């Protein structure tokens, strides 16, 4: 049985809204993330252009934009990070093209239209962080203030998928069913029991969803214990149409243990459903997960 770990922290202290500086160092060192953003920002930023970053942290993504842009607004709410970003930017070439603004990104508009908007308030499965709330609000406010066209968004599109897995929750002999974050292809990742299925495509220039309600069916490809669902999040940071490719960032998988695991055999159909608001806690998503075997309801297939 998976224990409920519902948080008692106030919203402002919740990771995602408040990210301590040492965690920013981890993010800076994540080459798949930081390198992907660098390539995408270089690709979409026009020389002499105007760029807005929402949730600027240490200022690194704004600095990438400043290598080509004339003016970058870097909006960050945490005062300690605002100070850190200003200090780091002052030590890097063209850092003076970035204005660090201490403000809540929800509701912030730049003083004039921009060519590009960067927002990395991303969390796997779009839980915890406010990417969708911030960009939905921005899109509406921007169109009301400046009218079309909308700027280019980095990321451009995010794809969400889910997959049933058999995951070990054993740590040096100690069993603990806790949510795991596992790098794509890493050793700790469990056995996938079926191909992933996409449950949402978020196009930041179109209507942005506020919640995800999904029900789907998988046919198991292997015998195994379905004891977790893996959530996959792939960000298409920019599309390079001239070369027919995308610059993307596959985030670590979120593996959520199921309260009621089930044994399945290859060929068994199972149903999976969940429902959650974007930006909600991990626990809210976890508690909404329902997995059923449909095997008994298809006797003809079993007989065959
Ligand atoms: C995942 S970090 C990314 C930081 C930076 N863009 C980078 O890529 O390294 C998200 C940042 O958004 C900031 N943030 C969270 N909520 C915010 C809000 N409502 N307004 C402004 N900044 C916010 C956090 O303090 C954090 O620095």
A few lines on this structure:
The chain has 7 helices and 17 strands.
What does this structure look like?
The chain is of the alpha+beta class and 304 residues long. The chain folds into two domains: 17-120, 3-Layer(aba) Sandwich (Rossmann fold); 158-303, Distorted Sandwich (Hnrnp arginine n-methyltransferase1). The chain is built from seven helices and 17 strands. Strands 6, 9, 10, 11, 13, 14 and 15 form a seven-stranded antiparallel beta sheet that branches. A five-stranded parallel beta sheet has the order 3-2-1-4-5, with helices on both faces. It has a three-stranded antiparallel beta sheet with strand order 12-16-17. Helix 2 (31-44) runs parallel beside helix 3. The longest helix is centred in the middle third of the chain and has 16 residues, at 131-146. It starts with 20 loop residues before the first helix and ends with a helix. Bound molecules: S-adenosylmethionine. Residues 17, 19, 27, 55-58, 60-61, 75-78, 81, 104-106, 120-121, 130 line the site of S-adenosylmethionine (SAM).
Topology:
Blueprint: H1 21-29, H2 31-44, E1 50-54, H3 60-66, E2 71-76, H4 79-90, E3 98-102, E4 116-119, H5 131-146, E5 152-154, E6 157-166, E7 170-171, E8 174-175, E9 180-182, E10 191-192, E11 197-203, E12 211-219, E13 224-240, E14 245-250, E15 253-264, E16 269-277, H6 282-288, E17 290-293, H7 299-303
Parallel strand pairs: 1-2, 1-4, 2-3, 4-5
Antiparallel strand pairs: 6-10, 6-11, 6-13, 7-8, 9-15, 12-16, 13-14, 13-15, 16-17
Helix pairs in contact: 2-3
This protein binds S-adenosylmethionine (SAM).
S-adenosylmethionine (SAM) binds at residues 17, 19, 27, 55-58, 60-61, 75-78, 81, 104-106, 120-121, 130.
């Amino acid at each position: 049985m998976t224990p409920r770990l519902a948080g008692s922290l106030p919203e402002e202290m919740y990771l995602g809204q408040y990210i301590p500086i040492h965690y920013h160092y981890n993010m800076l060192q994540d080459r798949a993330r930081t390198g992907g953003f660098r390539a995408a920002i270089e690709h979409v930023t026009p020389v002499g252009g105007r760029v807005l970053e929402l949730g600027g942290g240490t200022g690194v993504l704004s600095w990438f934009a400043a290598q080509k842009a004339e003016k970058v607004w870097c909006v960050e709410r945490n005062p300690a990070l605002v100070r850190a970003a200003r200090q780091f930017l002052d030590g890097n070439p063209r850092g003076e093209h970035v204005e660090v603004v201490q403000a809540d990104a929800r509701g912030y508009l730049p003083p004039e239209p921009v060519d590009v908007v960067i927002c990395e308030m991303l969390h796997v499965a779009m839980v915890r962080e406010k990417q969708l709330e911030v960009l939905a609000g921005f899109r509406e406010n921007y169109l009301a203030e400046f009218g079309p066209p909308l700027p280019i968004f980095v990321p451009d599109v995010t794809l969400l998928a889910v997959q049933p897995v058999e995951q070990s929750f054993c740590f040096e002999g100690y069993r603990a069913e806790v949510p795991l974050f596992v790098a794509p292809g890493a050793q700790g990742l469990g056995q996938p029991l079926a191909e992933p299925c996409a449950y949402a495509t978020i196009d930041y220039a179109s209507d942005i969803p506020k919640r995800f309600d999904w029900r789907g069916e998988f046919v198991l490809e292997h015998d195994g214990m379905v004891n977790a669902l893996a959530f996959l999040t792939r960000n298409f940071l920019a599309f390079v149409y001239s070369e027919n490719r995308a610059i993307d960032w596959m985030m670590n998988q979120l593996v959520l243990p199921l309260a009621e695991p089930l044994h399945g055999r290859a060929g068994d159909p199972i149903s999976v459903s969940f429902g959650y608001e974007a930006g909600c806690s991990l626990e809210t998503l976890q508690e909404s997960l329902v997995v059923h075997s449909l095997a008994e309801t298809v006797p003809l297939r079993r007989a065959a």
